[in-house]
Q: What sequence folds into this?
């Protein structure tokens, strides 16, 4: 009992849970292989080790030679070339032997290795992508699923429906689901957005719809502060535009000198698909032309009204010139 009390004092564990644990596994199971008490998980259950990396059951097992070299490097700021580029990589990756083994494991008869392996990768992607988007679709709230129903006449999405679509219909559907998933994430007040940390901005005075928003990056937050400090009426992601492929929701809509300006701000275009400008930005420009609005595209610029006005875009060619 003294060991249980010592464990509780050391870890803050629950007495009832520890007593039951010891009854089932024995008191020795409270100790890690190094002799120290095991740690508690976030759910208050007992972990398999004390918390030290070297005591983790998988450390050094899969690649012992890599583990030894990493331990030798632990006290150094850099690896000092102890691990040379490519030294521990499988030299047979993408070799004919590798491709043959993959196809044989999948039970695929090999006639032409290059063509058969290319078809295998193509079929794998065609299957993986629909599954991912079906998963996103199933997690959408009903009000967003309604958009899919109205646009594509789909009450329920499954692999059979996707397989019967032509390439253009499928691509358009995937773009739409991707856009709706972005809207859903923003409405659920997620903690992370893409590569960047989101920020809660509250006590808003000049947002025309809400008193607080969660924006997707620190760069967007600075623009919100700009609007608030200059008493400019603004909205965040309030307009969704139907594009040639999918949908698009620009960042801000402001009213400045009796002119409505639709704004997209980007710290970088790294990681965005090649047709982002040709498809989404072009659709936003056309939308603004039809609705007596101005479109401003700001890529990694200073946060100021001068930049917003200077980067008003009338055609996508101007983006390449200005940015």
A:
């Amino acid at each position: 009992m003294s060991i249980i009390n010592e464990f509780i004092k050391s870890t803050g564990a629950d007495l009832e849970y520890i007593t039951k644990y010891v009854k089932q596994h024995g008191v020795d199971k409270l100790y890690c292989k190094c002799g120290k008490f095991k740690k508690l998980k976030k759910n208050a259950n007992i972990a398999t080790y004390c918390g030290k990396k070297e005591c983790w059951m998988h450390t050094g097992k899969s690649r012992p030679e890599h583990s030894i070299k990493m331990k030798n490097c632990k006290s150094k700021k850099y690896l000092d070339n102890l691990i040379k580029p490519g030294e521990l990589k499988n030299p047979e990756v993408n070799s004919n032997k590798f491709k043959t083994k993959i196809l044989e494991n999948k039970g695929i008869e090999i006639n032409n290795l290059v063509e058969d392996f290319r078809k295998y990768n193509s079929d794998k992607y065609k299957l993986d992508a629909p599954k991912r988007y079906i998963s996103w679709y199933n997690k959408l709230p009903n009000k967003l699923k309604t958009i899919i129903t109205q646009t594509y006449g789909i009450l329920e999405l499954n692999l059979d429906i996707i397989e019967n679509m032509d390439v253009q219909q499928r691509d358009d559907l995937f773009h739409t689901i991707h856009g709706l998933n972005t809207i859903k994430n923003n409405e659920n007040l997620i903690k992370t957005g893409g590569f960047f940390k989101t920020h809660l901005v509250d006590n808003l005075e000049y947002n025309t719809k809400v008193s607080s928003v969660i924006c997707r990056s620190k760069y967007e937050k600075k623009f919100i502060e700009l609007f608030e400090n200059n008493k400019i009426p603004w909205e965040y992601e309030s307009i969704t535009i139907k594009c040639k492929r999918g949908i698009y929701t620009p960042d801000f809509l402001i009213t400045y000198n009796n002119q409505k300006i639709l704004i997209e701000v980007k710290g970088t275009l790294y990681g965005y698909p090649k047709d982002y400008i040709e498809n989404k930005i072009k659709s936003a420009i056309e939308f603004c032309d039809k609705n007596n609005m101005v479109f401003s595209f700001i890529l990694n610029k200073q946060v100021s009204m001068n930049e917003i006005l200077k980067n008003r875009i009338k055609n996508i060619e101007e983006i390449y010139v200005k940015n």
The mean pLDDT is 80. The chain has three domains: 2-57, 109-187, 193-322. The CA atoms of residues 182 and 294 lie 24 Å apart. Residues 109-187 form one domain.
